[in-house]
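Lecture 7 notes: from sequence to structure.
We start with the chain below.
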Amino acid sequence: MSRFITATDRYIFRLVLVPMIGVFVLAASLLLLEKMLRLFDFVSVEGGPISVVFEMLVNLVPEYAGLAIPLGLMLGILFAFRKLAISSELDVMKAVGWSYTRLLRVPFLITLALVALNFAIVGFIQPQARFAYEEMEFELRSGALGASIKVGEFNTIEDKMALRIEGSQDDGRQLMGVFARIADNDGQVLSISAREGRFLANREDRNTIILRLVDGVIVHNVAKGSPRVLSFSQHDLPIDLPALEQFRDRGEDEREYKLPELLEVGWSPESTADERIGSQANFNYRMVEVVMMLMLPFLSVALGVPPKRSTSALGVFLSIVIVVAYHKINQYGSEVAEIGRIDPFLALWGPFAVLFVLIAYMYYQVAFVPGGQAIGFLESAYAKVARRLKKLVGRDKLRGLVPDQDIHMQDDDEGTPPHVA
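Predicted structure tokens for the same chain:
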């Protein structure tokens, strides 16, 4: 085992692991925080408990992990090789006969493990989590999660009862200033006001709850006759809960199917044409998202090794753009394929083939062409832009925004003595 995994491999493993975990946590946290604000607003409008926000966020973790895991893997390997290149350790390793492909042994082992993890997430965990999220959202809208009575507003229950609460204490258990108006089909109306009240469960009938009122007055109005007034120190008012609509079964959306179910529906002669196309599009979308991860080590090396005597971070920015843009292209291709405008295989594996050729070319330039650069033309253009900016705003204002060597290069072109740090 020590011959297969050497001390250098373990060193590369440590360099990859720390930024990989950091990027994964950061990316997932940013995505969840953006969604959390919307969920807090949604739950507050629906009057549901705050705890349901965190339960819904847990069900969103597999959805965002499908993008956060590839980003973390790519940037972890990229930062590791970038550090090796900037510190000249990479030159020493290449001088003793270690090629880029050999140095990628441990990163590829990490990639295979994350490919298996991402396959389990997008193939089996993500569909279940998506369905659970949709079910919780439905139950929140319908009141099945225990949506609270809104304080200071009239709340209608089954079009027969209007209830208004002036205030609440003890997390909504103690109600203050209760007013209720109940009408029946015979024209009888009960108007009830009480100093305080409390909701109690009914063990005999779970579809009915008891509103126990304290220190109040009941005004009984009938269609023909004078109203009757009754004062009470305690009165139990039964309230029939509205019937809750049942949530739909899983599978209305192809994204809620597991991979074996997608295969069964997408290639079954008993399925309709729309079901087959939708299932095939979703199946191919999930597969390209997983298979694409096998190319990320090559992309990371191609973009992570900067030009000699340069600390340019252009490759870092470009790698993020490539991965996120490819993810969005796959989403668009899947949506277009689901409505039958293009063949699912072509819509999803076509961009994959283009990306594969691009990454293979970039890696070949870095690993097998002496002095080759994957994005050399972009680095040159970036350096020219940096020199132009230096002329416009001055050197001091550019420090920290562009690499120092780009500023020094301009000094050499102008015939000034090179700057010595």
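Points to note: Confidence is low (pLDDT under 50) at residues 409-421. The radius of gyration is 32 Å.
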